[in-house]
Amino acid sequence: MGSEMIIETTDLTKQYGRQTAVRGLNLKVKDGEIFGFLGPNGAGKTTTLLMLLGLTRPSAGSATVCGLNPIRMAREVKRHVGYLPENVGFYGDMDAVQSLEYVAALNGIGREKAKEKSEDLLKLVGLKADARKKTGAYSRGMRQRLGIAEVLMKDPEVLFLDEPTLGLDPEGAIQMVGLIQSLNQSRNITVLLSSHNLQQVQKISHRVGIMIAGSLIAEGSIDALAKETFGVGEKEYSLEEIYLTYFQEV
Questions:
Q1: What letter would DSSP give residue 157?
Q2: DSSP per position, 67-120
Q3: Which of 9, 32, 68, 240 sits 20 to 30 Å CA-CA off 74?
Q4: Is the CB of residue 200 less than 8 Å from the CB of residue 177?
Q5: Is the pTM of this model over 0.70?
Q6: Which residues pair with 12 in a beta bridge?
Q7: Among 39-48, 59-68, 230-239, which stretch is predicted with the lowest mean pLDDT?
Q8: In angstroms, rounded to a whole number, what is the distance separating the alpha carbons of residues 231 and 242?
């Protein structure tokens, strides 16, 4: 993991009428790390991801992703970033190979290279045996893994994952977390992981940020946040204990 910041925001703010979805966000994510972005539903996590992708314009403040301004250079940002939304959509009459080759075509990848990459990616995400099964018959876990394969088609430097384990059974969630960790370690992909599953985030994140009611109220490694919250001691605190303490103080 490097020291270079691959994602930075300065006083990033998004308002919808009188409602402030994101309030003065100052966030830094290092190259090669997994950053756990925590908070309850409605905390502003997804809105932040959309601003970083250039899909919605901030009301104030600024951001850079891979050194690029996502508002002025949204297309360039998307070349570097893979985004897996909370609900992944596919054409249900396509199989996995057809879905990946379609994504490849949209990204200007040639047919032969797309075929080769599709085979490699389906093997990577554990869908090789189901490659010719229609995606309309896929389980949620299978759709999530195919979504990961799709965003990997363009070899991104950064992954934005919005609740990637939501609705998965325990085994599917474990497989997804293992896949995310493997991608980070083997390909040095920076991961911004938006989630409210604290145990999974604690297992794989290098640092976390806790966002509540549009504001980032804490940021750092789990050990650093434990010391900040409870003081220095011998006991190891869980991310759940840390999170609940900050949540109760708001």
A1: S
A2: TB-TTTTHHHHHHHEEEE-SS----TTSBHHHHHHHHHHHTT--HHHHHHHHHH
A3: 32
A4: yes
A5: yes
A6: 25
A7: 230-239
A8: 12
